[in-house]
Amino acid sequence: MSDTLSADDLLLIRGERCLFANLSFTLVSGELMLLEGRNGSGKTSLLKTLAGILEPEAGEVRWNGEATRHQRQVFFGATAWLGHRIGFKRDLTAIENLRFEASLRPVRTRDIEEALERLGVLRLKKLPLRSLSAGQQRRVALARMLLAAAPLWLLDEPFTNLDRDGRALVVELIAEHVENGGMCIVAAHQDVEIDTPTQRIQLQ
Amino acid sequence: MSTILTTMPGLATGMLAMIRRDLLLACKRPGDILNPLFFFVMVCTLFPLAIGPSVEEMRYSAPGVLWVAALLAMLLSLNSLFLTDFEDGSLEQMLVSPQPLVILALGKTAAHWLTNGLPLVVLSPVAAIAFQLPGSTVWVLVHTLLLGTLCLSLLGAVGAALTVGLHRGTALLSLLILPIAMPVLIFGARTVSLAAAGDDYATGLYALAAYAFAAVSLAPFATAAALRISSE
User: Fold this and answer.
1) pLDDT tens-digit profile of B127-148?
2) Residues in chain B closer than 8 A to A81 (CB atoms)
3) pTM of the predicted model, to two decimals?
């Protein structure tokens, strides 16, 4: 099944500043989109607008042709979000956090350990996230993406705090996801070069 | 996609998962629960000492003091309700969760009541002993606190959701919550006073129950809307 995410004439104003206006695009399954721009150019805000966390001043985000705000459950079920904060409880272990996540959404596998294994943090599964390094916490947060059965990945600075292997792994996971018919929007300062149709949005 | 799409978990599953997670968190950080409880116990043991040994006076002031102490203890715990979720990004995840935000907010509120409201209710007979309240009155006190703390958790969640994005929102939270919490305090304390005087107190309990029902059915929606506004 092919999915479509489209933006129609999005306008977002934060404070006094217009971050973007008349922003339109269409993204279909198997495509990657990169949001580029310097610090403070509105990459995160655009990603949040697409995710429905921020309400655009004008315009509409559509999932398979219908406005996402009219079908939140369906759209959120199809979306996995990784913000620049990890979105997990630091007092709980990786397993406890992911088990909670898995009971809220459709998942592609019941096997939490498999996701942790893939990200190389399986041996840390019984430790509270608080005692993990920032990079290791990031890896646990990324395990959420593997667990969720979501065709659309929204990644805000997924490379933060990761070592070279970790960054390569993220690129690999994105490539795999897109290859399997998923779609992915990444806001990052690092280029993601993979063999797939890639759209770029340059924010001023 | 080539993978198997398992089905969407039901609403009850989502809410229970939220309650379970917050209870687990509370177990790992018992200090957060014990602080307000400690405050409640301190107030309830210091007041009789300050009032003096007259049983008459102590019984007269007991309902008011116990209820104000309970209200303030609840307020103390409310500030942190959504704060850690805001800081670690869990709130963001709640906003984009396939589960309705109302259900998740209700789950969080329920967990808050179980970890803060219920312990107060359980401790209140012990505090009442310090005031030498008769057994029948203690029983009424427990009932009013049971309904009252439920109201306060639900109403407080709305205030906590509204102030979560603000730094040092504690004072504002109190200002927002106290006006709508006033009826709870008045009915709660008055009902216990009436019971202590041997009068008919049923009306007060009914009023509190009505308030609790209204809060259960309306407050989670307000909390969810407030959470969305605060995250903008």
Assistant:
1) 998 888 999 999 999 999 999 9
2) 92-93, 96
3) 0.91
